[in-house]
């Protein structure tokens, strides 16, 4: 048992495994074959130069926010299992062609931040874990990489935002008093803007709104997949006060794609950088059973993937994460496989664009 409330475990490369195919051509390439430990350059406040790998994975092995939010815990076990499902996926031909000879520079694993929230530890473990995680992702952004956080509960979102915020504070635009406008796009059945005396997995976007207000910055938040039966009227009231752009789960099912994509593009056009977060409970419980709070209705995986591609195509996504997988309730690793597919989609789109 570690003697601190928050610890970091380095990348365990022995978990990057998959099929061996000695009789196939060299194009039978998998992510497990090219992942490397993430390289943190200590001299690194080299603004936006490519010092580490292009993509950095970092786990947020923490479900204290879910516990505080009266949810069912277990999400802390997800990061290595999402990695494992992703490791076994093939690298698509377009990426192999594009990065011929440089595949080993694409993907770094920065290990996991652990939040040890048992009775032996002080109350503020979650907040410490968020800060430790934020420092890691901020460093990656400053090295010119795209960090992708693997939750853990959705309390990861406040850490992801803080990491992005810290990195943006170092940019020339910010020092010239011209802060980039941050847009947050969250795929989620829940708004996660709860009022509470402590941070939880249900509060991160309200915390972000307060952080931005304290800095005199606008709050641009678009939540896609919101369910009218997973959020109270009090939450919808707060969403209205905060100017949240809501695309409901029913809109996703019933409205024409063209209309939805126009709404997303209008949101994107109003911001300079995007933090993209996917709470896996945006999908139906039949597709993703292993989450903290399963959705009865949910939005289609095909819809989520198409929308993620459209958001990534903006070239504005500087931070991303995938949250709320809870392996305790998964069936045959189905939920981890869906998370891995969305992770692959984000990575492929980013690498094909940059
Ligand atoms: N991060 C998710 N939060 C949801 C959980 C809802 C539930 O437990 O039913 C929320 O607070 O709304
Ligand atoms: Mn949710
Ligand atoms: Mn959520």
From TrEMBL:
It catalyses: N-formimidoyl-L-glutamate + H2O = formamide + L-glutamate. Transmembrane segments: none annotated. Mn(2+) 1 binds at residues 154, 188, 192, 279. Its EC number is 3.5.3.8. Pfam families: Arginase. Mn(2+) 2 binds at residues 188, 190, 279, 281. GO terms for molecular function: formimidoylglutamase activity. Its cofactor is Mn(2+). It comes from the Bacteria. InterPro entries: HutG (IPR005923), Ureohydrolase (IPR006035), Ureohydrolase_dom_sf (IPR023696), Ureohydrolase_Mn_BS (IPR020855). CDD domains: Formimidoylglutamase. Keywords: Histidine metabolism, Hydrolase, Manganese, Metal-binding. Pathway: Amino-acid degradation; L-histidine degradation into L-glutamate; L-glutamate from N-formimidoyl-L-glutamate (hydrolase route): step 1/1. Binds 2 manganese ions per subunit. NCBIfam families: hutG (TIGR01227). Catalyzes the conversion of N-formimidoyl-L-glutamate to L-glutamate and formamide. Belongs to the arginase family. This is Formimidoylglutamase. It comes from Psychrobacter coccoides.
